[in-house]
Design brief:
The protein has about 230 residues and is α/β, with parallel strands linked by helices. The chain has one domain: Rossmann fold (3-Layer(aba) Sandwich). The chain is about 45% helix and about 20% strand. A seven-stranded parallel sheet has the order 3-2-1-4-5-6-9, with helices on both faces. Strands 7-8 form a two-stranded parallel ribbon. α3 runs parallel beside α4 and α4 runs parallel beside α5. The radius of gyration is 17 Å and the shape is globular.
Length: about 230
Amino acid sequence: MSKACLITGVGPGTGTALVKRFVEGGYKVAMLARSADRLQALQQSLADAHPYVCDVSDPDALAATYVNIKTDLGAPSVIVHNAVAAERGTYMTIEPRKFAKAFEVNTMALLHLARLATTDMVDAGIGAIICTGNTSAYRGRAKFAGFAPTKAAQRILLESIAREAGPKGIHAAYIAIDAVIDLEWTRKAFSDAPDEFFCQPADIAEECYRIAHQPKSAWSFESVIRPYGETW
């Protein structure tokens, strides 16, 4: 199997940092996002970063994109499902259609990706399927009724994948980020917060890379990361 990595949800923060880290590690990286604009700058600056426009909530589009990636780069040995959708609000105020969309992006796309990649990874005897998540996967706060259930389902689905695929050589792992990620819009939203309040995208990417390369005798399933200044 070629040293290829598939990353969903490549935006200006964690997604970009993930691409840079895996390219640095010698991977050909397939970058997935809904908009080509997000991917152009990375493509121009990183020779081994390859753009694929895809809405991961569309299973047919995702399957076709996976086939294209296999043809272009080889079957991915690492998949990082970083794409996320959220419907904010209480159970009384959320829009059920948007809640369903969040489930399709966060949870169903993981299912489809795992099903697409499993045979290739088993044949190669190696593979990693990683999700970036957050602590909404462990608790349902009042105004997260349209989001937390999708992340909890994502984590539980990945645990089921880990139990089934782990003995076949596929490392499935969930990385929960208990923090506000340092982005332009979060800096504006939390303008009075000190630097230690934010989690750096490059540090998140480093943790994902580390988890993807753990020895088989000491695999992690869950990793919860937070800045040292975070209250928990």
